[in-house]
Amino acid sequence: MPLLPPPARTVLLAALLLGFAGCGGVPVDALRLTAQSDQNRARQTRRFEGVAEATLLAATAGVLQDLGFTLDESESKLGVISASRKLTSRRPMNGGEIAKDLAWSILWLPLGLGMTAIDAAKGVKEPQVVRLSLVTHRDGATTASGSSVRVTAQRVVFADERQTKIKSVEPLDDPLFYQEFFARLGQSVFLEEQKT
Amino acid sequence: MNLKIIFLAAALLGSVAFTGCMTNPALAVFDQGGTQLQLRSFQTRAFDTTDREKALRTVIATMQDLGFVIDKADATLGSVSGTKLANYELRMTVTVRTHGATQLLVRASAQFADPRHNTAAVAIEEPAPYRDFFAALAKSLFLSAQDVG
User: Does the model's ipTM exceed the 0.85 cut?
Assistant: First the structure.
């Protein structure tokens, strides 16, 4: 007689397989183009009519300096600038964090409730390093055909202010980031063209 | 008495087994899983073009399509390095060099790590991720990627 009934064996096997899958290293799609690749490219790219690639690259460096970034590397022959900036932002608390905070209220009522309200209003501190690369591209044979720039950005969020323990590593995908960046770049291109 | 001998043998075996796992730190950099030739063939493709700058720019664009931030690019050396962060860390270096009179040789090498769990970076030695990368690159270059050697 078998030790476990067939359904239990199936469940156990599935759990084991899932467990092993969880141990895997490189995700299968890590270097694969996805359905979102085209959308991402469109969101991350801005075209500037009649602007030379060198002007666009200089304007890009200007915006990065305006924003307090350090230019880590650049290769103007290939139109590449990479930059980074350390900063601390605050985000709203999520449900789990509010619940965790509220759990203390059971011991501290009503002080705990007040503290939770204050914590929720303050938000969660996120010490982080933002890294980005900007790549310019000449769109045609002449300056008149213009140039474009593509930005890719990511951040490393730390659990502590001294930045010793990494909490998460992720791409910066928020469309608002790109809108704001390109708005500032537009102004910088204008200033750069005035100079030239 | 017998128990003593068993303990002694176990301790001896254990120490031998652990010694087997150790590496001379000066030689750790030479540790790799597959054979060097096999790894090179996974990581390398030839393309029928001689325009090195265009190929480098296309490598950069393809890496951006795949979610990389470009860390460094060198037109003279013909190399591009980038990092992808998506709950894991993938670092990749791609080199482009001339191959005969009519071709360019592109080689990619990548390392994977999980910084949230502080795991050490390991070299990617499976062929599948490189196959995916070269498929994406070939699409952008409008050329087919040819196996080498």
Answer: no
